[in-house]
Amino acid sequence: MANIAQAIYSFNNDPVFARRWKSRLFSEKYNEIFRKDISKEEIILPWRISKSINSKISQYRRNQLNKLKKEPNSFTENDKENILKKEFLIYSNLIILYFIGKLIHKQYREYSQKIAVKLLNMRLEKRTERIFDYIVDILKYSDRLIKEKNLYHFLLNFDNINSLYDEIQRAMEMEKARTNRNPLNDFLPRI
Question: Please, which residues have CB within 8 angstroms of residue 62's CB and are 6 or more apart in sequence?
């Protein structure tokens, strides 16, 4: 239950609070997380998205970062650089869940049972993976993340999280201006 509460609170509100004070979610945020009118779909959607995110981060850790540390000579310098640009992922599962939640809110101008029902289908994991990859491709070039020496502490500041979300927004706007298409339409179905 604590992991579900953490997923819901991160998706809708604040991934920093959810990570730092997971034990306080039930005592301080219970009514905000489990509103009286919350539907089972609104509970399940963030949980399933979070599982997909955790799986992608585990793959990165296992197949790239750990392998780089054990066998650094098996990678080119360019590959090493690309792997290390994504090191922020180790601390970002709830943050990426928050970003995806914000993008869903942006796309549909709300988050409701109807939206959750429409998104809860067999394509959810693939959609989540595509959004995840899109976000990572933007953030791996973030000057703020590249220059940061202590990613863990940097990512425990909600203002920093919001500045990263602003970078995602800017990249999406630039892509929209360049291609004349909303990138969210590629990831999320019309409802």
Answer: none
